[in-house]
Amino acid sequence: MANLKTTYLGIELKNPVIVSSSGLTNSIEKIKQLEDAGAGAVVLKSLFEEQISHEINHEIDRGHGMDYPEAMDYIQAYTREHSVSAYLKLIRDAKAAVKIPVIASINCFSADEWVNFAQEIENAGADALELNVFRINTDKNSQSADYEKLYFQIAEMVSKVVTIPVAMKIGPYFSNLVGVINRISVSGVKGAVLFNRFYEPDIDINTLQLKSAEVFSTPADIRQSLRWVAITSAKIKNIDISASTGVHDGTAAIKLLLAGAQTVQVCSAIYKNGPSVITRINDFMKQWMDDKKFNSVEDFRGKMNYSSIKNPVMYERSQFMKYFSNFE
């Protein structure tokens, strides 16, 4: 009988399927449904630094605190404290309501704003903390090292102030992604989530306004994650890789585990098909493992990563022209 148990960030999970940080994990009722459907863990909806700043500015724009600097300071402190308190309550309530691991999430863009908050998250009982970091570099005169420095600062500063394991969710936009993940891994971070799905802009040609592009992933989006999970899991041994984006069924989950992922994170598929998609993914993995005579996830994890296949160049871009030459 196939056993789906695994570990992530040193935490035991009943299976490798984690529900990503999203609106799916912003209430106890939803989290219970995800647990009932078979989720191995949940990442709570992120608390956004930008969201808190927006709420503060909204109160100031309404005229609150404009007459007295002390009042403005109070509004800023109160709004931040209110947002943080509500999030800490979600952590405590989730831990009391479900048995699966509860991972908190911070979406930040500054290096030191979230150090104290990370400690509060630990005190609230979160099993781990996911740092959701993304910064667009638009300065043509800056160096890549300047851009990457923020990631290393956040990783090191937060890892030093908490004892719970920390993961960092990042995007693929680095000139040396393997080097960046390696640097993160020696800063105290125990996991890397590949990849973040960012807001992408689109243009409405009728109204001449910017709008949001499609927010949900598609099964085809697994391609980028698959490549880099396979490469990084082979080259960096001291960090857990969690694969995110494009996981819509059991086949995708198995592919990413074969590529070396410790866990897979699911979001868009649940939005589109409901929590039962988690059950189907787990059932598919069990049946596949039975068919292949694998007793545990460890029996096949990484069997198809960069260092395990005869021709690792298949994971590199050099195969691009070879592939398309077949369609001349």
Automatic annotation (TrEMBL):
Keywords: Flavoprotein, FMN, Oxidoreductase, Pyrimidine biosynthesis
Protein origin, superkingdom: Bacteria
One GO cellular component term: cytoplasm
Cofactor(s) listed: FMN
Keyword Cell cycle assigned: no
GO biological process: 'de novo' pyrimidine nucleobase biosynthetic process; 'de novo' UMP biosynthetic process
Boundaries of every Dihydroorotate dehydrogenase catalytic domain copy: 84-288
Pathway(s) this gene product operates in, as recorded in its UniProt entry: Pyrimidine metabolism; UMP biosynthesis via de novo pathway
GO terms of molecular function: dihydroorotate dehydrogenase activity
NCBIfam families: PRK07565.1
Protein name (Swiss-Prot/TrEMBL): Dihydroorotate dehydrogenase (Fumarate)
Phylogenetic classification of the source organism: Bacteria, Pseudomonadati, Bacteroidota, Bacteroidia, Marinilabiliales
